[in-house]
Amino acid sequence: MPIKIYKPTSPARRATSVDTFEDIVIKRPEKKLIRIKKQTGGRNAQGKITVRHRGGGAKQYYRLIDYRRTKYDRPATVEALEYDPNRRARIALIKYEDGEEAYIIAPVGLKIGDKVMSSLNAIEYGIGNRMPLEHIPLGSAIYELEIDPGKGAQLVRSAGSAAKLMAVEGNYANIKMPSGEIRIINRKALATIGQVSNPDAMHIRIGKAGRMRHLGIRPSVRGKAMNPVDHPHGGGEGVNPIGMKAPKTLWGKKAMGVKTRKQNKYSDKFIITRRKKRGR
Asked: Are residues 228 and 194 in the same domain?
């Protein structure tokens, strides 16, 4: 995905980079594969704000992505590569021989006219093909990984991400996740071969507040800039430090370095090696 950098005609332009969208087909999404996406403004069913700094933004349709791909052993042709406002990865419109269409997350290198297929048995190795882990060659890059067989893709779905199939032993396969974590997953679980498209999405710089508002993200005020009554970091003169051992949230809980994973979680037994912490 090419990224365009503008001439620094203003402070905002100097810090901004945009996607050129050269790798997609400019077309309207399929009507039968979209749904209205209602905006919540960060509020729950009781109208209370549970996620702050949300609201506004451009209206979007939600694209129905086929994470299960249960039409086994039926080849489908890639009709288009499209933009999806709900994710940074590209999506591909595929069409089966019986005329049914579906959206899937596109891998790097997928082109219009290519054939993709899903199967519960061993099939030809090719990007976009989906099959159980036990039939995928070791060392392959995979994405759209199931946790439980038949449940649909839940892991490795963001732009540019890919896991690596390390080994298949007994009833489980060893998978190295994009974070570096190594975990075991049922060998019957399905995965798609390849790397998620649009790997350069992480290099795009928003550049100015207005683009964040278009994304539906409202301004955020630093706790340090507030009064003591409004935030634990508040008060002080000028650029004084926060005056405490560790940063806290608005409600007084520690904000950095605190383990948030539930103790004795059911999936702990499937994790062989934990991911490395950032900066180490």
From this structure: no
Residue 262 domain boundaries: 223-280
CA distance 136 to 123: 9
- Tokens 């297929």 — which residue? 117
Exposure letters 98-127 (e unless 16+ CB within 10 A, then b): eeeebbbbbbbebeeebebbbbbeebeeeb
Residue 93, classified by CB atoms within 10 Å of its CB into exposed (0-12), middle (13-18) or buried (19+), is buried
* Same domain (yes/no): 279, 243: yes
pLDDT tens string 45-80: 999 999 999 999 999 999 999 999 999 999 999 999
pTM of the full predicted structure?
A: 0.90
Decide if 213 is inside a domain.
Answer: no
Q: If 0-12 CB within 10 Å is exposed, 13-18 middle and 19+ buried, where does residue 189 land?
A: buried
Residues 56 and 111 in one domain: yes
Residue 172 lies in a domain: yes
SS3 percent helix, strand, coil of the chain, rounded to 5, is: 10, 30, 60
